[in-house]
Amino acid sequence: MPRAFITGITGQDGQHLAEFLHTQGYDIYGMVKGQNNPRMTVVREEFPYVEPVPGDLADLPSLVKALEQTQPDEVYNLGAISFVALSFNQAELTANITGLGVLRMLEAVRMVGGATNNPIRFYQASSSEMFGKVRETPQTERTPFHPRSPYGCAKVFGHDIVVNYRESYDLFACSGILFNHEGPRRGLEFVTRKVTNAVARIKLGLQQELVLGNLDSKRDWGYAGDYVKAMWLMLQQDQPDDYVVATGETHSIEELVTLAFAEAGIDDWQRYVRQDPKFFRPAEVDLLIGDPSKAREKLGWKPEVDFPSLVKMMVEHDLRIESAKIR
Ligand code: GDR
After folding, report:
1. Of 142, 89, 148, whose CA–CA distance to 287 is shortest?
2. Cβ atoms of 211 and 288 closer than 8 Å
3. Whole-angstrom distance, CA of residue 87 vs CA of residue 85
4. Tens digits of per-residue pLDDT, 33-53?
5. Residue whose CA is at the smallest distance from ligand 1 atom 9
6. Ligand 1 neighbour 190 (Cβ under 6 A)
7. Which among 216, 100, 79, 214 has a CA at the least distance from the CA of 150?
8. How many Å lie between the centroid of ligand 1 and the Cα of residue 284?
9. Which end of the chain is less enclosed by CB atoms within 10 A, N or C?
């Protein structure tokens, strides 16, 4: 059986990837940070086939040990401080985990290596946040980076160091430049889930208002379950390379809000939504839209879930879990 090692196993993408790799017959190892990580309980319950392995992206010896112990064929580095807004307050921590963590993981891969005829293949979770103040639209693998947050800056370092290790040491290392990808497993701090959860709670009379930041910013939103398949496909190719993974469509936060409220049968969303400057960011990424042509042509990948279906899926899920709480 092929063996996969995943950092960030407790996050949205780690869970979707584990689920997908399980259907492909993989043995799956998930790196877990710290003692008694509470999010691990969810993973243990929902994904009993994932074997937890201790390790921390801030600690190279722990990464080397984890790879020696698990001897993976594929390493997926999804672990990061991933909330852009938080990165403005904890910039140094973000640089250490989201940026230097990639370097440490690459070093561990280089040191442990894998069999000579079957070297470890490495996937790095790069991000559309690297494009930031966009230099061209839509953005492709060749668009220059101009990050607008400490998170974006750390991701640029991670992306560049993957290219550098690939070129310097001939590693099979790929980066997926993933645009926003969402779903029912998204954390409540991210805008899509914040909105769909609030809509469900407002509909059920559990909450009176939804307080948001910038309603004008736009994102290219896809479904996380589709995007993890692109990660895996990258590692099945003959040559390592980088790919933009996106839908090619962009929508504003206001469109998201309108659609989510309508999905719950509420047409006058303005009654419930208030803007607060505390949710505005010191610098904003205004228009992200990705061109996934290369992923489509070389990987045969395309998104299956469109924006209205994604919002519907998330609102329905939140209505289900919120109404179960009041029963
Ligand atoms: P993003 O996701 O920063 O794009 O990064 P997020 O959902 O946090 O923000 C999207 C946009 O919504 C605006 N916004 C708000 N955002 C939040 N979180 N809360 C609010 O109340 C709110 N109001 C408006 C934001 O200003 C922003 O423009 C995500 C993360 O998953 C990254 O890790 C990943 O790399 C990128 O997507 C691709």
Report:
1. 148
2. no
3. 5
4. 987 888 888 889 999 999 999
5. 191
6. yes
7. 100
8. 10
9. C
Known active-site residue 127: yes
Would you call 51 a catalytic residue per the annotation? no
Phi and psi dihedrals of 246, rounded to 5? -160, 175
pLDDT, one tens digit per residue, over 271-296 is 999 999 999 999 888 689 999 999 99
Q: Which ranges in 170-223 belong to alpha helices (H)?
A: 191-203
Does domain 187-219+250-288+305-325 sit in CATH 3.40.1190.10? no
What token pair was written down for 253? 């936060």
219 lines ligand 1 (CB under 6 A): yes
Confidence at residue 229, expressed as pLDDT on a 0 to 100 scale: 98
Instruction: Determine the topology of domain 3-181+221-245 in CATH.
Output: Rossmann fold (3.40.50)
Q: Are 245 and 178 in contact (CB under 8 A)?
A: yes
Burial 113-140 (b: 16+ CB within 10 A, else e): ebeeeebbbbbbbbbbbbbbebeeebbb
Residue ranges matching CATH 3.90.25.10 in the chain: 187-219+250-288+305-325
Angle between helices 191-203 and 253-263 (to 10 degrees): 30
Give residue 21 CA to ligand 1 midpoint distance, Å.
Answer: 27
Q: Is 129 a catalytic residue?
A: yes
Residue ID of nearest Cα to ligand 1 atom 4 = 180
State pTM to two decimals: 0.97
Query: What phi and psi, each to the nearest 5 degrees, are found at residue 289?
Result: -150, 120
Distance 191 CA to ligand 1 centre (A): 5
192 CA: nearest ligand 1 atom: 7
Catalytic residue among 76, 126, 129, 149: 129
Query: Residue 19: helix, strand or coil by DSSP?
Result: helix
Q: Where in the chain is the domain with CATH 3.40.50.720?
A: 3-181+221-245
Please provide the size of the chain in residues: 327
